Amino acid sequence: MRISIKDLNKIYANDKKALDSVNLEINNGMFGLLGPNGAGKSTLMRILTTLMKPTSGSVKVNDFDLDKHREEIRSILGYLPQDFRFFSKLKTWEFLDYAGGLAKIKGKRKRRQLVDEWLEKVGLYEVRDRQANKLSGGMKRRLGIAQALIGDPKIIVVDEPTTGLDPEERIRFRNILSEISQKDVIIILSTHIVGDISSVCQDLALLNNGRMEFQGSPEALINKARGHVYQINTSGTEYDMIKEKYAVISTIPTNTGWEVQVVGDKIEAKNAVEIAPNLEHAYVYFMEYYLNNKN
Ligand code: ADP
Q1: Does the pLDDT value for residue 85 go beyond 90?
Q2: Which of 19, 46, 59, 263 could crosslink 10 through cysteines, CB 3.0-4.6 Å?
């Protein structure tokens, strides 16, 4: 699968430019779309999932054009929006069966079998007879995952993947997605939380203020932050100064004060040791320093 986005713009009725000449290529595997709140991620995801039309620009999915082949694209799409809700009084299994119908799974028996398989996979088999809107938050999220995936989609879009999931459920969710990502599919994880995509995405893009500021591998982003991440052992008085001058990523108490990890352009402090950046460091460095220097 291949998604090709060219010069995409979205201007809302209030003149807000939510997407500004976005270009993006997405290939098979897990793709992370990262950006702060308000960056334009949901706008882009709503356009990709055919829920909204762009102001201008084009999106191609393989040889399909999003503007001309909406039905064809919908039929290979699985979408898990952030605020997935159940308005009906359907039981959990009935809801999934209904989603299977919408995904055009033919044959009642085959559909029922798939419903059972998915209930097992997401750990909801025991509660299959419970009314869907009475499930707990995490369970609802898991049912959302199952309804997005039951039709065997080729493109899967997940908005804010870990919202409402506890740590154990995050791992389960991650495993389900990694299993699927071995096939000819694209999985897009759209999030403002770096941890949602580190260690799972081969490719990522950074959206900021409607503009696509970076696309590449996590390693390529990390490389940009090399030489800009330091660990500082400090006492209480220096700490305020450090907080003011640099972006503080973490603070751990020690016997004598604090062990602080910071990113910044040029770091000059007593007891500062350069450390290797991880994706979170790189994201903060890129957003707070790199872009400012570039502009
Ligand atoms: P994200 O998903 O990254 O948080 P959004 O795509 O939701 O970002 O929003 C991008 C920008 O567009 C924000 O400034 C937001 O306030 C604005 N926006 C989103 N939806 C609408 C809308 N329906 N009408 C006007 N402005 C909108």
Answers
A1: no
A2: 19
